[in-house]
Each structure stands twice: as structure tokens, then as C-alpha cells.
Write a structure and sequence with these properties.
The chain has 111 residues and is mainly beta. The chain contains one helix and eleven strands; from the N terminus they run βββαββββββββ. The mean pLDDT is 88. This is Alkylphosphonate utilization protein.
Length: 111
Amino acid sequence: MSTLPPCPKCQSPYTYEDGELLICPECAHEWSQQTAAGGDETEYKDANGNILADGDTVSIIKDLKVKGASQPLKVGTKVKNIRLVEGDHNIDCKIDGFGPMKLKSEFVKKI
């Protein structure tokens, strides 16, 4: 039986696994197993300064022109289940009716 680390936020020993994430049932804090193993994880923030996490839902805060597309992404477009990645465009997502995209975190806000 493997021992899971305590919650880094509230130190609760009752953490559990959910896919690739570790979750604390007491304070609802979620973190990746790489972070728990001492991996270096960068914090990504939205336009309002809120910290983003994998699986969050965000909305676009300004019209974004997309190369090769006939129409821009409009303000208020909801993007569900984001995935954070390294690089200049640090959000990897799939937008309904548009397809797979990479976005910069500075052009979204957490919902």
C-alpha cells in the first residue's frame, strides 16, 4: 500500500488520488503528483491574478484573431477543461465549434 503525502495547504492526512491529481477532502485543494514528488511546477495566473489549474473553466476577455481562421475568438467564449503546459502559449484546450487551441493565460479569466 502506497502512502500519499499530506495536503500542502492544510496538512490533512486524508488525501486521495483522482487520476493524475491528489485531492484533499477537507479543504478541496488539488495538486499534481509531480508537485508532491518535489517536481518544479510554475504557477500560471489569469488576467485577474487568479491561479489557474488543470481542468479549470475560463472565458476569453478580448477578441483574439486566429491565424488561418475566418473569424476571431469572441469575448466571453467559454473554454472548459484547460490543460496547463510549458511555453509562450501556456494553455492547451479544445474550444467547442473551433477546435484545439493554445492560449496565453493573460487573455483569459477563471470562471
